[in-house]
């Protein structure tokens, strides 16, 4: 550009000189050296113009390259800012993950501690369960022994009852035979005068009949006392179970009981049926209704036993079923009371 300005200045000077030369035509023509210099300068001007155009094109291409590089720089700067934002976000994420890792490690420690405590509790529960199973096995063995004893008693009573039934049937048949014999003897005595001997035989038969009736009455009293004792023991077990339940509830509310309260609770075990219902009335209505229902069932059972004793022969199988039903009920109550007694 500077060379161009210099050439333009020189051209202007040459034009001025040419104009002055044209004005002064009277003066002699310029020399050939000036013309040559003018032509050289014009050539140089053309060359400079061409060079300028080349330089302008190169400048334009360089400008375009510069613009492209600036755009590339802006893109790279935008990418750098985005990467910086991503880097900050990743740093925050790493810090968050580190804090979560610390929290998870602390939670893992606490979970390991709770797991160890749970394992200890499971071991203790397994030992308690084993001990309870052993105690239940012992109670089951005791209950089986009691059951075998009651079954032996029942079989003895059944055998005695069958024997007495046979004796009674024999006595009835003998009574019929004696009645027939008496009629025969009366007719014979009227004919042969043997009335005195028939009276003696009749008296012996009456004595035997009275003896058998006494034995039957004795058997009935035995059955009645057995049923009463069984009924009383079942009621006593129910009372013990209800008191054990109440004592368990009192233990849950209040951990310690005084010795006087314990003695009082022990003395209540031997209460009567009416006192038992008075104790139950202090509890909830559901237990009272249940106790009344059990009392009615026991009453019906006793009436059923009485009907069986007053019924026609044979009644041994029905009596056996009724007694076995009450014995099974007593066995269940014994198991329930033993389990309650363990925890109270």
Helix and strand arrangement:
Layout: H1 2-23, H2 32-192, H3 195-253, H4 259-268, H5 273-281, H6 285-310, H7 316-343
Described by the principal axes of the CA atoms, the overall outline is rod-shaped
Radius of gyration: 66 Å
Order of helices and strands: HHHHHHH
How helical, in percent, are the residues? Answer: over 70%
Derived from helix and strand composition plus strand pairing, the structural class reads mainly alpha
How much is the average pLDDT? 77
Gap between N and C termini: 118 Å
Oligomerization state of this entry? single chain
Strand content: under 5%
Sketch the major β-sheet: none
Number of helices: 7
Low-confidence stretches: 25-29, 254-266, 279-283
Please report the total strand number as a whole number.
Answer: 0
Biased composition (Basic and acidic residues): 1-17
GO cellular component, one term: centrosome
Region (Disordered): 1-34
Protein name: CNTLN protein
